[in-house]
Amino acid sequence: MHRLERVISQLDGKGRSSDRKEDASGRSSLSVVDNRSGKRLEVEIKNGVVRSKDFWKLGLRTYDPGYKNTASCTSRITYIDGPKGLLTYRGYPIEQLAQKSTFLEVAYLLVYGNLPTQKQLSYWTGRVMRHTYIHEDLKTMMKSFRYDAHPMGMVISTVNAMSTFHPEANPALAGQAVYKQKTLRNKQIHRILGTMTTIAAFAYRHRIGRPYVNPSSGNLSYTENFLYMLDKLSNTSYRPHPELARALDVLFILHADHEQNCSTSSMRHLTSSGVDVYTSIGGAASALYGPRHGGANEAVLRMLERIGSKKNIPKFVEEVKARKVRLMGFGHRVYRNYDPRARIVKKVAEKVFSILGYEPLIEVAVELEKIALSDPFFIKRKLYPNVDFYSGLIYKAMGFPTDFFPVLFTIPRTAGWLANWNEFLDDKENVIVRPRQVYLGPAKRDYVAINQRPANRSSIQSYSTNESRRRTVSDSSP
User: Fold this and answer.
1) Which partner for 162 in 37, 44, 136, 278 could form a disulfide, CB atoms 3.0-4.6 Å apart?
2) From the CB of residue 256, how many other CB atoms can be counted at a distance below 10 Å?
């Protein structure tokens, strides 16, 4: 029985109040009996789901913290079959795309639904690469950040600021129907994909105290141009290593989209309000910034560094079983099998290490994976390596600082966010997102005068620095 049907079948607490039926025309439905009133409800099952609003006829809402079993939209972009370890973009297996395609071709596929012809790909690539330059005032703004500003904070702030440079693409200024113009909509897609690598590269150079490098005017690919802006010094003919650029391109393909994850859902949520696309992208990137989402590969790297060597793995595994520490990079909310991206990333890691040298932590990672995949504790819980387990090691081997890892996730995921933005705008069921709540707070209370109120046990103390305490005692001294 479908999971949602099983949940609904337990509405009466006895698992007997509903049954799945299919009439002569092949239509499926769910019959629900409200044992409080005896009222019977017939709910249509379409595409394996029932509509939550149908239960309002019984005065009920569905409660689903974290939306673990709630479909908030229909989509034709990415499909995941967790039990089978399957990931497809527009129906194409991720393995085929990683082997045969490029990131920009995959980005086109995600946004427009089909693989491009040679003519379409040439135009698409040209438009994206043509928009790699950013406004000089935006560059000046980035230079005003502190020397030690986190690269992800710089990227998020800069993308949000872009909305002020393009008022013609802001529904609040140009009218709510502005995105009905497909050409204007495409312009924003080209511009955002093009400038994202530039903004990221400038944030990287800012962090290490080097002058910004403008995009190359040469015939470089998307990832080659990105590496060029990161690494060019005095060599006027500098060109990134092609195999390292290809490795990064594959990682970008793997991270381009992943169904309705936290950041993609944020993209749709913000878009539903009618806000401009730059603000939506900035909000999605903000969601990605969190350690439960885009910071996962950084957490894996720090875990492997704490383990240190193979001899410490048995002790670490026992601490995981005792729930004293967390095993990062294993398991996934949707996969109940080996993450298909992890197998590809492992091969990419081998290629990168063969070029740049052996990363010592890979020995720890391989041994930890071997033990986890053979231990009944992890097998029972279906804890298999996910894409984050090896990607952090690749980024470390390529010389990226750990605080830049979320930025390397943001660049490719922008393609998925834009694909969902584009799809949402064309969805006839497009409405502002407004989840309901289950209120458990106090009932109606009368206002109480301040001198009659009981002591409040809530802590309102805030953290004080030593500097603040020094100033406080100085102010209170005679």
Assistant:
1) 278
2) 25
Distances (CA, A) of 349 to 228, 357, 390, 401, 471: 21, 11, 7, 17, 52
163 Cβ contact list (under 8 Å, min separation 6): 169, 170, 276, 278, 279
Count Cβ atoms below 10 Å from residue 166 Cβ, excluding itself: 18
- Residue 261 CA to residue 420 CA, distance in Å, equals 11
Q: Which structure tokens are listed for 331? A: 């398991």
How far apart (Å, rounded) are the C-alpha atoms in residues 345 and 98?
A: 10
27 CB burial (10 A radius; 0-12, 13-18, 19+): exposed
Three-state DSSP class for 49? strand
Other residues' Cβ atoms within 10 Å of the Cβ of residue 185: 18
**How many other C-beta atoms are found inside a 10 Å radius of the C-beta of residue 62?**
15
Please compute Rg for the chain using Cα positions: 26
Residue with structure tokens 């239960």?
A: 55
Cα–Cα dist 196/465, whole Å: 37
List strand residue ranges (DSSP E) for 8-125, in order. 18-22, 28-34, 39-45, 78-81, 86-89, 92-93
Tokens of 446: 């009368």
Residue 455 corresponds to which tokens in the numbers above? Answer: 């002591």
Taking the C-alpha atoms of residue 270 and residue 264, their distance in angstroms, rounded to an integer, is 10
Residues serving a catalytic function are 293, 332, 388
- Residue 198's identity, in one-letter code, is T
Confirm whether pTM is higher than 0.85.
Answer: yes
**Which residue carries 């106090």 as its tokens?**
442
**pLDDT averaged over 10-residue windows placed end to end, the chain, 478 residues:** 39 38 65 90 89 87 88 94 89 97 98 98 98 97 96 97 96 95 97 98 96 93 98 92 97 96 96 97 95 78 90 92 87 68 88 88 86 85 79 90 93 98 95 92 94 83 85 74
- Determine the Cα angle at 428 with ends 422 and 433, to 5°: 75
DSSP secondary structure, 115-183, as one string: PPPHHHHHHHHHHHHHT----HHHHHHHHTS-TT--HHHHHHHHHHHHGGG-GGG-HHHH-TTGGG-HH
CB atoms near residue 369 (< 10 Å):
18
Is the torsion defined by CA of 313, 318, 322, 328 positive or negative? Answer: positive
- CA dist 289 to 59, 68, 94, 147, Å? 38, 21, 24, 20
From the CB of residue 258, how many other CB atoms can be counted at a distance below 10 Å? 20
